[in-house]
Amino acid sequence: MKSLRKAIWLLSLGLFSFSLASAQSPEYYKNRRGEILSRLINAAALIPSAWEGELESFRQSNNFFYLTGIEQPDLLLLLAPSARSPETLFLPARNLEEGSMSEAWTGAKLGPGKGAEEQTGIAKTAAKNTFDFTFANLAGGLDKLYFDYTPGPLEGPVSAGEVFLRALRDKYPHLQILPFSRLVDSLRTVKDSSEIRTLQQAVDITGASLRETIPQVRPGMFEYEVEALIEYGFARRGSQRPGFPSIVGSGPNTTVLHYDKNRRKIGAGELVLMDVGAEFDYYTADITRTVPADGRFTDRQREIYQLVLEAQKAGFKAVRPGVTLKEVHQAAKNVIDSAGYGQYFIHYTSHFLGMDVHDVGSREIPLSPGMIITVEPGIYLPAESLGVRLEDDVLVTADGCRVMSASIPKEVREIEALMQSK
Ligand SMILES: [Mn+2]
């Protein structure tokens, strides 16, 4: 074990010393960029990496990571079939001086040159300050530019992406600038086998942490303690971070959908709702379990719980190629409607899942094999301080679906047995 660790450590020094986080080969990402290149006609695509704030931990932007596997800020990827090199990565010069932005402070980084081209598999790298010149030579022959940028709030400071976009608009008024999501979303929605494996790891980490934490839940504990136990479980199992802010709500807070303050003390006889997901290598799980703090459901809690469970199973049954999320929602909603609780099911049943917890993909598209969605009905009764939501992650297969989180306890007897197992 020890020698294996050492080998991995040595390997990581050799291969990944320049923030290439991904376990994938450079060819894997080259193929993806090829997919984008084949969709560009009289057009180019420009994908900036995430920016780095000095006191926040860095996470690459999903689209940039999807196309390069590189975890480094301040980069620009230009894809342009009509350019001499169809793919160019622009990087800042390496900073080997002293000071807070130097590599001595922030760790070794990739710089422009042969080494970066070999490590990333991107045909050409160039210094970032040559971008304007390169793009000016190219722009005359283009009609469209796909630019990857998420608009910020209408008020508040202007983002770096916004500044960049405005400068492009001013300089190249003939260019139609379109969101890059139009090219990449349909690719990201269908997961390949390695993405499915990665997301399965995220699901398994989440499941193991829930299984470990649920027996420890009891009245008198604070919601944040439950949160901390779950997130510690994630970290111990190799998750880099939670994929979204963990929701741990007890009693009245089980009826607040996006409750993430997690400050309340859990009371006797209450339900505790945990909506959590570990992120693993840029893919996140999204699982919800609702458990009784005392280890046993009251009759009323069990009644509502069973109804939500039945609705969820109806949702699973509806998942197969060709249907839309609307139909999955209707299947789950019918069960809750016919029991008379329709008005207390106040959200949608499904969303796409992947690099983002609410991943790209629209409710209107027909499902196809390789898509991953959540199925998460709920009933919320604020007057009774009683909310139940159950959420699992589901892979669409050729003939139906596979519930990726099926092994995480959920039946009433399973939950009660798990809680009494401590
Ligand atoms: Mn969800």
From TrEMBL:
SUPFAM superfamilies reported for this sequence: Creatinase/aminopeptidase, Creatinase/prolidase N-terminal domain
GO CC annotations on file: cytosol
Requisite cofactors: Mn(2+)
UniProt record, GO biological process: proteolysis
Segment forming the signal sequence: 1-23
Protein name as it appears in the record: Xaa-Pro aminopeptidase
Enzymatic reactions: Release of any N-terminal amino acid, including proline, that is linked to proline, even from a dipeptide or tripeptide
Pfam families given in the database record: AMP_N, Peptidase_M24
EC number per UniProt: 3.4.11.9
Family from the record: Belongs to the peptidase M24B family.
Keywords annotated in UniProt: Hydrolase, Manganese, Metal-binding, Signal
GO molecular function list: manganese ion binding; metalloaminopeptidase activity
Ranges of residues in domain Aminopeptidase P N-terminal: 24-156
PANTHER family: XAA-PRO AMINOPEPTIDASE 3
Domain of life: Bacteria
Organism: Candidatus Glassbacteria bacterium RIFCSPLOWO2_12_FULL_58_11
